[in-house]
Amino acid sequence: MNEIKLFCPATIANLSCGFDVLGLCLDNVGDEMVIRKSAQKGIRITKIIGADLPLETENNVSGVAGLALLETVNPDFGFEIEIYKNIKAGSGIGSSAASSAGAVFGINALLGYPYSTKDLVQFAMQGEKLACGNAHADNVAPALMGGFTLVRSYSPLDIIKIESPSELYATVVHPQIELKTSDARSVLKQTVSLKSAIMQWGNVGGLIAGLYTQDYDLIGRSLHDEIVEPLRSVLIPGFDLIKQAALENGALGSGISGSGPSIFALSKGAATAEKIAKAMSAVYEAINLPYEIHVSKVNSEGVKIL
Amino acid sequence: MNEIKLFCPATIANLSCGFDVLGLCLDNVGDEMVIRKSAQKGIRITKIIGADLPLETENNVSGVAGLALLETVNPDFGFEIEIYKNIKAGSGIGSSAASSAGAVFGINALLGYPYSTKDLVQFAMQGEKLACGNAHADNVAPALMGGFTLVRSYSPLDIIKIESPSELYATVVHPQIELKTSDARSVLKQTVSLKSAIMQWGNVGGLIAGLYTQDYDLIGRSLHDEIVEPLRSVLIPGFDLIKQAALENGALGSGISGSGPSIFALSKGAATAEKIAKAMSAVYEAINLPYEIHVSKVNSEGVKIL
Description:
2 copies of one chain form a homodimer. Chain A is of the alpha+beta class. Chain A folds into 2 domains: 3-163, Ribosomal Protein S5, domain 2 (2-Layer Sandwich), CATH 3.30.230; 168-297, Alpha-Beta Plaits, CATH 3.30.70. Helix content of chain A is 38%, strand content 28%. Chain A has helices at 61-73, 95-110, 117-132, 140-145, 181-186, 194-213, 216-222, 229-232, 239-248, 270-286, and strands at 3-12, 22-38, 42-49, 78-84, 148-154, 157-162, 168-175, 191-193, 253-256, 263-268, 291-297, 304-305. In chain A, strands 1, 2, 3, 4, 5, 6 and 12 form a 7-stranded mixed beta sheet that branches. In chain A, a hairpin with a 2-residue loop joins β5 and β6 (157-162). In chain A, α1 runs parallel beside α2 (95-110) and α1 (61-73) crosses α3 (117-132). The radius of gyration of chain A is 19 Å and the shape is globular. Chains A and B meet through β5, β6, β8, α6 and α7 of A and β5, β6, β8, α6 and α7 of B.
């Protein structure tokens, strides 16, 4: 195999109570990438369609993630990467993670799979480090592994994949505003009350239990964020109305995707997810705020070979 | 049925990362109770063997818990309760919870099971309120329901039972010192760092995932408490040595049982649990500190009819 074409999925990180640890993979929202072997060693980004991103390997997240992998293998050939972006940068659904995940997945495949998919997370994290200064795994892990992922620990890196209940759908609305990650981070408080923290880890426990037992009601009861959402949601126009519209239309829960500005809702079944999409759209249409909206099953496999 | 004899199990609450939310039920450590119908309405505590506890119904945790249940049913007969205590008060393995759980379980059975076992938790919590001023559920829930229990929320009360992996054993050592709950509470800080809180809920997620997948290694990797153990363990003589002895002898993890002074270790298989018991015993023998030690499988059913 000399060339591989990939679907590189968008992801939702910071899933309500699972701030910084829980993410999920979307199924029909994502980029495409073509990766091919080349005689010249190293990595060249030969084409980027759909976004204004750097072509220099060292300045591109897929280049940096790919190089991190290549350093450990050092083959006597190299790779060319073409990127067809659909996920908007800064949307809060893992645009950079999709590119980092795709690059390491594709290169690993063309090398004959020297690494397991889970092992690739550490390399893809280097792309995230370039993108936001922090080698976080909560988008690249679900992008690579699919389903839900729990980043239990960074030191050592310990990632647990949790299969998604079969009828779980996400609705994600992206208001077309710019929300800088630095602003989203600056509103966080470095200390939290013990009481809120206990409620949060009770809900994390409930959410994980709900996923394993396919208990949609329990998933819904657990989808609360006591700590971050109250601080960050004020940065997102119409957040309360969007969330209310989602819950009134049958969402199990709703919250901020990543560090925003996208807002997600989870629901049981495609029909409910579509109904929620309509209700969310109506909120932004009423205030004339441009938006994109996605309805997607949870993707169980992560990056896919096309 | 006019009389019922019960085994009322000890429990471990505040399971490492699961402070205030996660507990488990022990299988061969516990009290016995006999509960029988009587013509006289209300509840009378007719006998207490093995502990110096109040016989007045309103001052006894089993009396108070039983009355909370009876108030909702109001039968035209009453109950007598005999209590044979084996669990020492103040040991940190749910002595009062065993009595509260036994009382409501037995009365419910003699009434023909008007309530599910899970529904009984709310009544047993009233016994805990008498015992420690706080109607907490993290001992009465596992005592009634068995296995592991997650108290996801108090308002509304939401308890999730999680079956224990089949080979999971607990070793519990009880140093014979008095540790007042008020002292154990006073060392807690009312705020925690966001970073520690995130580590804690990552570990709660990992622990729940490990229980559902019977992944003993993951259970072990998740059994950390970033927040409470560092503060409380200094109140328990030899804590660090006991924990080290447990881990060096194959424990998956070790921590404070309840608010102490008992220390628990979890392990895979009875042989490891026994080996840990020997190592823990050696620590307290070396410093001439009297102790009791228990080795028990996790009890999957809670209160048992004898």
